[in-house]
């Protein structure tokens, strides 16, 4: 008779009972931070992404896609490396703020960003998205403990 099957099933059940609630809490925390970050991002940009995207403006879609990915990257690093919800919350807020600061810096550097995006300038949008993702990658790497 194989006695390892009941032990295996009990082990899986135990792992799910203890680990699944924690996983869900961490994942929901990151999803909320991400969603709030994206909403705030769209509120502080000098143009209205949703309206532009509804009209088929590719540049606005590229910039917003860059922001969505850029906000998610450091949050994903936190999810992968943080064991405590408080760490995820604190550093998640920092990650979102860094992305908002990045957008502010890019707006200052690329004078006329609003005009570029509203004119559907793909080259300008690509630079903005690249800057956002580059900062996010460095931010994510900085958040991974040594």
Describe this structure in words.
85% of the residues lie in helices and 0% in strands. The chain has 146 residues and is mostly helical. The protein has one domain (22-143). Helix 1 (4-44) packs across helix 3 and helix 1 (4-44) runs parallel beside helix 4 (85-109). It is elongated and about 65 Å long. The model has no long low-confidence stretch (mean pLDDT 89).
Summarize the structure.
The chain has 6 helices and no strands. With 146 residues, the chain is mostly helical.
Terminal Cα separation, in Å? Answer: 47 Å
Number of domains: 1
Helix content: over 70%
Number of helices: 6
Largest sheet: none
- Please tell me how large the radius of gyration is: 20 Å
Task: Please report the total strand number as a whole number.
Answer: 0
Shape: elongated
């Amino acid at each position: 008779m194989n006695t390892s099957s009941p032990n295996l099933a009990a082990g899986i059940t135990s792992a799910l009972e203890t680990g699944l609630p924690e996983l869900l809490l961490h994942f929901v925390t990151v999803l909320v931070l991400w969603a709030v970050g994206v909403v705030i991002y769209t509120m502080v940009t000098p143009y209205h992404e949703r309206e532009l995207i509804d009209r088929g403006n590719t540049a606005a879609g590229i910039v917003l896609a860059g922001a969505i990915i850029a906000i998610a990257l450091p949050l994903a690093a936190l999810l992968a490396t943080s064991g405590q919800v408080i760490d995820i919350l604190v550093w998640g807020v920092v990650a979102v703020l860094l992305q908002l600061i990045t957008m502010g810096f890019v707006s200052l550097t690329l004078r006329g960003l609003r005009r570029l995006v509203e004119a559907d300038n793909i080259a300008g949008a690509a630079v903005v998205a690249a800057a956002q993702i580059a900062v996010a990658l460095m931010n994510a790497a900085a958040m991974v403990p040594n």
